[in-house]
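Protein record

Derive tokens from sequence
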Amino acid sequence: MDASTIKSAVEKRLAPALVHVPLHPHVVTLLALASALAAAGLLVRGQAAAAGMLVVLSGSLDLLDGAIAKARCKATAFGALLDRVSDRLADFAVVSAILGGGHVPFGWGLLALLSVMLGSYISACIEAETHSRIGESVSLRGLRILLLALACLTQRFTEAVILLAALGALSAVGRMVLAWRLLGDRGQA
């Protein structure tokens, strides 16, 4: 079962209630980002437990924005882009705050940032070439949110960041293999 299947199942179950949410999906997306940025600020100040709760809130809102958009027939290409950009900003902010707050060795934090961003970039390139949404099926966003929240709540930052770096690197390699399979050696357009 891939990430998009799980997300679709959650959206289907929540749809009846989400039709009545008075907020525009873009507002929910921006609230998710604001929660992640606030978590980053708390991490820099050493308030890890509170940051962990905001990471959970951010992840929950991130799950809801697309579901609200679909339930209210307000899903748009711009909304999908806004969601993906805000997800990358949220990931970057929280991991950067863990690094900047001195919670992990510099090299591991930098490697985690690179691998997370690289995997997303490779997916975006594949999608641009194939006109697909393949990134949704190989997304590790939920797992990243879970790891970051657990890191904050348990203050086991180094272990979580090493795991993020390893998963990100494996994901990037897997996505490159997928790109090779889908794109092969075809010429550029």
Q: What stands out?
A: Helices lie at 3-18, 25-44, 48-71, 77-100, 106-130, 134-137, 141-154, 157-183. The two ends are 34 Å apart (CA to CA). DSSP finds eight helices and no strands in the chain.
